[in-house]
Design goal:
single chain, alpha/beta, 4-stranded parallel sheet, two-stranded antiparallel sheet, globular
Length: about 250
Amino acid sequence: MNLSDATWTDVRDADADIAVVPVGSTEQHGPHAPLGTDVVTAEAVADAGCERSERDVLRAPAIPVGVAEEHRQFPGTMWVSEGTFRDYVRESVESLFYHGIDRVVLVNGHGGNVAALREVGARLTRDGDEDTYAVPFTWFDAVGDHSSEMGHGGPLETALLRRVAPDLVREDRLDAASESGADGWGEWVSYANLAYDSAEFTDNGVVGDPRDGPTERGDELLELAAAALARLLEAVAERDASRPERRGGDSE
């Protein structure tokens, strides 16, 4: 059930105690892909995972702005601080907890959100009621060997966009996107990334070759990510979310 389309009585009468919250970003993805790439892909994976699940799952509206200051030199990019992002996501999920939706999976489409979402999941689970539990899921970490080619506006995101929103891909700009992009993320010396902003190492914001992202690859990516999400939804729904006791017993 999509919360944006449902009425409050629909939700009241639904037999659902688990939800997905797509989380993305509004940021540059090169000259060929839209600023909303991370939102579009997170929503598509969330919807496909819900369809594959045998459970009744509520699909919340997407959170469209994330931790993306690393793309600030590219016009149109929006971002918030990590603290603001964590607070907003946490409070959004707590509102679902209030209505008895005590299990939530945060379906993420942006690498810059990963660390903050992990902390949000931990706080919600540790500080909430005994039955409340939240966990983040990043779709491009769940696509098998393809994950090693995750760049930025590169082959994976372009392929999935071609599968779920082909009209948003500027096909006539793919050659230029590839030629002015970077081969990898960052500038690495002694296992340390010297770059903080993407504009330091990519002229047009692209990392990876988007021409390696045909629609057929997008089909496979969506299937892999959706299947992984469906398995996760089952595990989250069945998990004992009670917190372990302190080890060592009574201190006296």
